[in-house]
Amino acid sequence: MRNIKRALGLLLISSLAISMTACGSDNAKASGKTSSDEVITLRILENDTAKQEGYLDELLSAFNEAYKDKGIQAVDANMEEYSNLAENGPYGYGPDVLYQANDKLMSYAEDKHILALNREDFECADLIPEEAWNAFTIGVNGNKYTCAIPVNVQEPMLFYRKDKLPENWETDWDQDGDKTPDFLQSWSSLYQLSQQIVTESGGEKYGLVASCKDLYMMAEFDFSYGGYVFGKDENGLTNSEDVGFGQGDAAKGMLGLRQFAGVMNEECIDDSIAQNRYVKVADGTYFCSISTPDTYVLFHDRLADVYKAEGCSQEEADKKATENLGMVELPGKMPADGDLSKNGDTVETVVMGGVNGYGISAYTEHRDACIEFVNFATSREMITRRAQILGIAPTRSDVAQEMGGTTEMIFGSLSAGHINLMPSVKAVDQIWDPMGTLLSDVAKDAFREKKGETVKYTDEASMQEALDKASKSIYDAIYTLSN
Amino acid sequence: MKTGNIKTKCSYVIMGLGQFLYGQRVKGLLYMAVLALYLWYLVTSGIGDMTGFFTLGTVEGDPWLGTKGDDSIIMMLRGILAFLVLIAVIVFYLSNIKDVKNTERLVEQGKTVPGFIASLQAFVDKKFYVVALFLPVVGVAVFNILPIIFMILIAFTNYGGDIVPPKLVDWIGLENFIQIFSLTGIKDTFVKILGWNLVWAVCATAINYFGGLLLALLLNKKCVKGKTFWRAFPILAYAVPGFITLLGFKFMFSYGGPINYYLKAFGLQAVGFLDIDAGWKARIIGLLVNAWISIPTSMLLATGILSNMNNELYEAASLDGAGRWKQFTKLTLPFVVFSTTPTLITSFVGNFNNFGVFYFLRGGLYLDGYFLASDTDLLINWLYNLSIDNNYYGIGAAVSLIIFLITSVISLTTYVNSSAFKKEDTFR
Questions:
Q1: Pairing state of beta strands A351-360 and A419-421?
Q2: Alpha carbons B53 and B395: distance in angstroms, whole number
Q3: CB-CB neighbors (< 8 A) of B372 in chain A
Q4: DSSP 8-state class, residue A152
């Protein structure tokens, strides 16, 4: 017994010694900065779509081939798309270069987790419009700094079925005779078409159905009427104390959203539509829906599935899906008074958008090599490949022109101020839930009367009150507990 | 101290020196090595770590300028570790005093002072529990106590919001607790959520417990054919990961889900089971979904306990004229409750802190009258909204301390007043 105890005691002690030895860290190994003395290894964080579609592999291979003689190689950082640089970077675990949206990158910039960059170090600098650069500009102690290189613009797009256009659209739905259906140009016309589809199908089919609780997709009902996220201070920098969702005639726009929700179905109130929209557009239940350009492939594949189920080969199904799936910017005109049932004066549609770009971690040990990489990744050749593979709208004017079509249209909208970019401050994190809740409630309001429930938003005053409450809720979330 | 001889007194000043002078060279050297190691640690980083614990840093980092700066959070962690090491050294010091006194006594009695190997053998033999528990205790200290102390201390700092590294964090005393109980929006939200949280915890625990018990009793009936087959169904529900089940239920109750599909197919209106106005509808769905996930566990527990029931008690009760209900309330229930009181308390605490149900069913809603929360959120969900979604770590830690206090008081009070505690020997 005594021997057993002794043996057990020794075992425990030795296991403690071994485990304590194992606790010793090897920072060089953990950081993975260099694989040898000569070769600099950069860790690149890209988004999941770029990985899935094979663009990242192509980019890394091309870069590694081009820089093999210069002792620089780039590898996938192998981190979660939204891994937190602020938490990992200071301890040597973050990526060296990261591709993310402007709100995310600039929240890092506020605490200096990404480097301030010199625009002249980048070959693409003169080809990118000032609006895109502004998304990555931050003011520190009265000076302005650029903290990332813009790559592409994102905005909500309308996905529709070309083969489901009304047969008489050229005679009845093209009043200006520009060979483009009015309902792709005007929200009032799209509302009227949706109303017609619902009536004719006895509520079996719908025109536009989109997620009304998604601020990113529905911000046009606020921004087009003078609303905004945050105002600007005297230096032109974002002032998050000025929450502007209730500014201007935003209440009129929100009443327009409520009106439109009435001709959608109730799936627009919750998250159902975010899952269903690809299938429902593909099977023809919805004529169109709203999503971001990077989801084109999902709409396309679901439509191809429908054609395959009808007996087409894979090739034929893909071809038919490409022919019949349309992706355009949201209609450019909204009714000035917010009443979608009339065809009166209009205002220009202003949507919410974002700019994705490359930032360089402030914790990288290879600043110059990172600049080389970003220069390579933002070169004309690589941005063209990115646009071809991922369907993005580049901020480089030369590539946008070359690609033409929707890409050029989005680029034009950014330059013309029709895209209100997400503010590049940390406080933007606080806008989504309060506004999402309000938008969901506004959409639900459209169905309350039918169910015998009390309607909440009967006029502009009640809508204005709700917008003001949401803005205050956002302000409180930012400032009540701020230090 | 006053009674010891000079050799013993040496160990008061230099750990192990007394043992060394008494001829216990190896043991003395080991004690001295521990002291030397600690002094080396104190000089190289210990004193700095302890000071840093109080200052939480003085130099703010600036990655753009390459200024490294102090990391307040790491300094707090290192400070806690330094104090834990200090406690460990004090324990060593006290054992050194005790040991040298023992040696002194042996010398006074004219006995031979044991050598190192003999001492080690005697220690392993007599104090085997110390050897066996040493590793687990170190593990608990590092992986449990350290994070708990860290979390408690965060509640007394301004960590969160704009104050995240590289900015320096400061101690702010009870400021976070004062904010919770004084700021109108936060105080009202806290009171509303706490009220609902208590109702939820009581109802959820009762439904799950009695649901499981009834199911176990039903499947225990002799008249039920194919018991194994029927028991497999709750086990299947239990085997599916909870969050998958919750996402499934969220879809089922959504506007685009099957329930609303069939409601509309029968000519009825779609129901917003979980939307903004849902209120008690959503709360009741939450309770039922939670029952779906949890009842199998309590059913299994009750099945095991019921198998230990003495059937003679029921026969005797029948002879005395007790009906089935009487037998249930006077025999089955007391026996099961007695055996499961600790589990019941665990279940109550688990339900009180049930994060998943409303996070998955109804996350992302901020309602009027609530600060960063909705009417179905529990304190744990609010804590998540504050600390993870909105980075208010300090306030989040304060809320979690309050949750800890509430659940501890309720659990202890219930346990101390339960028959499982008062009549421990009743069913032995």
A1: parallel
A2: 20
A3: 433, 477
A4: E
- Angstrom distances, CA of residue B196 to CA of B189, B199, B200, B369, B375: 11, 5, 6, 14, 8
Instruction: Please check whether residue B135 is in contact with residue B357, taking contact to mean a CB–CB distance below 8 angstroms.
Output: no
- pLDDT at A43 (0 to 100): 94
Q: How far apart are CA B292 and CA B357, in angstroms?
A: 11
Sites in chain A below the pLDDT cut of 70: 1-37, 482-483
Say if residues B292 and B246 touch (Cβ distance below 8 Å): no
Q: Which residues numbered 233-262 in B keep a CB inside 8 Å of some CB on A?
A: 250-251, 254-257, 260
Cβ-count burial B27-64 (b if 16+ within 10 Å, e if not): bbbbbbebbeebeebbeeebeebbebbeebbeeebebb
CB atoms within 10 A of CB B173: 9
Q: Residue A416, Cβ neighbours under 10 Å: how many? A: 10
Encoded tokens for A155: 């905005």
Residue type present at position B376:
T
Total Cβ atoms within 10 A of residue B3: 8
Using the Cβ of A58 and the Cβ atoms of chain B, whether some distance falls under 8 Å is answered with: no
Sheet strands (E) in B210-289:
none
Neighbours of B245 (CB within 10 A): 17
Q: CA B28, CA B30: separation in Å to the nearest integer?
A: 5
Q: Which amino acid is at A355?
A: V
- Residue B100, token pair as written in the block: 């040298």
Q: In terms of C-beta density within 10 A (0-12 exposed, 13-18 middle, 19 or more buried), how is residue A340 classed?
A: buried
What is d(CA A473, CA A431) in angstroms, rounded to the nearest whole number? 9
Helices H, strands E: what count in chain A?
Answer: 21, 17
> Are the beta carbons of A270 and B163 separated by less than 8 Å?
no
Q: Does B320 touch chain A (CB under 8 A)?
A: no
Which residues numbered 411-450 in A keep a CB inside 8 Å of some CB on B? 426, 429-430, 432-434, 436-437, 440-441, 444, 450
Residue A140 token pair: 């520190």
What tens digit of pLDDT does each residue of A250-304 get?
A: 999 999 999 999 999 888 998 778 878 999 999 999 999 999 887 888 899 999 9
Nearest 5 degrees, angle CA A299-CA A280-CA A432? 75
Spatial CB neighbours of A41, under 8 Å, sequence gap ≥ 6: A32, A33, A34, A35, A73, A74, A75
Range A3-42 burial, b when 16+ CB lie within 10 A, else e: eeebeebeebeeeeeeeeeeeeeeeeeebebeeeeeebbb
Of B71, B135, B164, the CB nearest to A16: B135
Instruction: Mean pLDDT check: name the lowest of A260-269, B78-87, B238-247.
Output: B238-247
* 3-state class (DSSP) for residue B419: helix
Distance CA B21, CA B24 (A): 7
DSSP-derived secondary structure for B105-157: HHHHTTPPPP-HHHHHHHHHHHTHHHHHHHHHHHHHIIIIIHHHHHHHHHTTB
Assess contact for B193 and B378: CB atoms under 8 A: yes
- Judged by CB atoms closer than 8 Å, whether chains meet at A271 and B134 is answered as no
pTM for the full model? 0.80
Q: Helices (DSSP H) in B42-115: which residue ranges?
A: 47-55, 72-108
Please state the three-class secondary structure of A14-40 as a single string. Answer: HHHHHHHHHHCCCHHHHHCCECCCCCE
Percent pLDDT > 90 in chain B is: 42
Whether the CB-CB separation of A352 and A439 falls below 8 Å is answered with no
